[in-house]
Amino acid sequence: MYLILVIVTQIIFEQYCYRLTGYMAMKIGKTVATAVGGSLILLQIANHKGYININWSKVNKDLEGATKKLVQKGSDPSIPKMLDKVLFFIQFLPAPFFYILIHGA
């Protein structure tokens, strides 16, 4: 009986923590989205009123230079190596551990 009470208490506490975390993430996410959106609108208004002058030819030239560098370098070679290591590790995991890893305890 005591074990069942402990398990039920733990489940209730976990659900409370999950819901609290989700609620906080939602509120923080809305606040960040509002701040970013508001600042973008303020920047557009300042640009329209003439407070901000953007040298578009320089921006385009910098973007072209960055694009050329990216094409010359290619993608980062460490990413496929890291994915290979992860896949190698996962294939040796026992099935119950993998289930717990994905779905939680």
Helix content range: over 70%
Number of helices: 4
Shape: flat
Task: Give the assembly state of these chains.
Answer: single chain
Q: Give the C-alpha Rg.
A: 25 Å
Order of helices and strands: HHHH
Q: Structural class, judged by helices and strands? A: mainly alpha
Beta-strand content estimate: under 5%
**Weakly predicted, low-confidence segments:** none
User: Which whole number gives the mean pLDDT?
Assistant: 80
Q: Can you summarize the main beta sheet?
A: none
Number of strands: 0
Short synopsis of the structure:
This protein has 105 residues and is mainly alpha-helical.
Molecular structure report:
The chain has 105 residues and is mainly alpha-helical. It has a domain at 1-53. 85% of the residues lie in helices and 0% in strands. It has helices at 2-49, 56-73, 78-91, 95-103.
Feature tags:
105 residues, mainly alpha, 4 helices, 85% helix, flat
How does the SSE layout of this entry go?
Layout: H1 2-49, H2 56-73, H3 78-91, H4 95-103
